[in-house]
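Researcher: We plan to redesign the surface later, but first we want a full-length starting point. Tokens attached.
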């Protein structure tokens, strides 16, 4: 297995050990465009659940400041939706990492 292919797959598998740090490092260190593309995609997929939870908390604080009642459950809904999306993102990253490993051809040379 080529080193570049392994790096690209590890960007997706990094959701388990360094979700933000590893893809950023790989993106700036590697010179291979295909690996950079996978690093960018994996980083964006790692950021999706965090963005959902942050938007829910942001909306909660905005509604609290404005004085809209009935939005007390918004952070809880954001955490639940963010958790569900996080599980989906983990499964997607596992599938993408396996697909990268199984790719044939010399596109990582």
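Model: Full-length starting sequence:
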């Amino acid at each position: 297995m080529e080193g570049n292919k392994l790096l690209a797959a590890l960007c997706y598998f990094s959701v388990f050990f360094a979700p933000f740090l590893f893809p950023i490092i790989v993106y700036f260190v590697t010179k291979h465009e295909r690996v950079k593309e996978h690093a960018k995609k994996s980083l964006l997929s790692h950021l999706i659940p965090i963005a959902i939870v942050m938007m829910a908390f942001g909306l909660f604080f905005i509604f609290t400041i404005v004085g809209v009642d009935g939005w007390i459950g918004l952070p809880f809904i954001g955490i639940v939706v963010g958790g569900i999306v996080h599980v989906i993102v983990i499964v997607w990253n596992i599938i993408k990492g396996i697909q990268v490993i199984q790719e044939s051809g010399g596109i990582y040379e």
